[in-house]
Amino acid sequence: MFGRRKTPARPLIEIDKEKLEQLGNQKLYVLFLQDNWKQLSRKSRLALLQEVENRRAAADGREPARLVIGEDESFRNNPGLMGSYHPGTKEIMVNYRFLDGDSGLHSGMSALGTVLHEGRHAFQFDSMDKNDGRIPAQVLKEWFSSKAMYFSSGGSTTQERIKNFSLYQLQPIEMDARRFSRKHLIQVYMDMRSSGIPTDDIQNEITRALQIEVGLIQNVRNVLTLEDIDKAEREVLDAMREVYPDMDLEGLTLFDNARMILKAGNLSSINDYLNLINEMDRIEEAKLNRIRDQKLISIRDRKKL
C-alpha cells in the first residue's frame, strides 16, 4: 500500500552578512515581518539580528556587541527571558527560541524589539564606562545605580515575586531600555505604514510592549506602597555611596516613575494607562534632552564590579 507523497519542505533562505549590509533600514526591518522571518534560516536570523545591533552601535558611537544564542538553563527554563546583555564580554544573548520558532512570543518583531532593548543596555554601559558627558549627569547617575545594586526577580511567594519583579522593571536602566525599544518600534511602524507595507506584525509587538507597561502599573498599584519605594531607593543610594564615594548624589531620585504611578488618580480605561505611560516617557525624554553636562562624574570605585 502506497501512502500519499509528502510535499517537500520549502528550503529556508540564507542571507549572508554582505547582502544584509547593503540593505537600507526599511528593507532590513521588513525581513522581521512573519512572512519573511519564517523563511529565514537559523544562521540568517542571527546575522540579521547582528546587523541591527551593528547599525545601532554605529549610531550610538560604540563598538557593537556580539550576538550569541542563549541556550543555557536560564533560557531553557524561562521562555519569557527574551535576552540579556553581558557588559564583561560585551555580548547580547538572545533566547534560542527566536532562531527556532517563528510566531507568538518569539516572533520576528519580538526578536527585533529584544535586540533594540539589549543594545540600549550596551549603550548605557558604554556611556558609563566612557563618562564623557554625552549623557546628562543626572541620567548617568541613575544608570550607575544599577551597577551598585541591581534588583532581580524572584521570591518565595507570589506577592514577593511580583514585588521584586516590579522593582526590577522600575530600575532606571530597565525603564530606559524598554522606552527606547518601544520608541524605535513605533518609528519603524510609522515608516512602514507610510510606505504601504503591512504593519500588523509590528503593531502586535508594540501592543505587547505597551501591555508590559500596563502590567507594571497594575502591579505597582497592587503590591507596592510609597514606603516600599522610599525604602528601596534608600537601599540603592546607600549602595552607591559605598561603591562610588566621590559621586555627588545630592537630590538624586531613582523611582519617580513609581511615585507617579502610585499618585495617579483613578485608571479606569486603557486611555488612562496610555496617558500615564506617555507622561512618564515625556519626562524621561526631557531629562535625556537636557544640555549635556560638561563636568564629568567622579566614579572612583571602592569595590570591583
What this model shows, in words?
By secondary structure, the chain is mostly helical. It folds into 2 domains: 15-130, no CATH class; 134-293, no CATH class. Helices cover 60% and strands 5% of the residues. It is built from 14 helices and 3 strands. Strands 1-3-2 form a 3-stranded mixed beta sheet. A hairpin with a 4-residue loop joins strand 2 (83-86) and strand 3. The longest helix has 24 residues, at 200-223. The N and C termini lie far apart (68 Å).
In short:
The chain is mostly helical and 305 residues long.
Rg over C-alpha atoms, rounded to the nearest angstrom: 21 Å
The run of helices and strands is HHHHEHEEHHHHHHHHH
Supply the number of structural domains.
Answer: 2
- Main β-sheet description: 3 strands, mixed
Give the beta-strand count.
3
Spatial separation of the terminal alpha carbons: 68 Å
Helix content bin: 55-70%
Give the amount of beta strand, in percent: under 5%
Structural class of the secondary structure composition?
Answer: mainly alpha
Total number of helices:
14
Average of pLDDT: 90
Query: Numbering strands along the chain, what is their spatial order in the largest sheet?
Result: 1-3-2
Overall 3D shape? globular
**Uncertain runs:** 1-9, 301-305
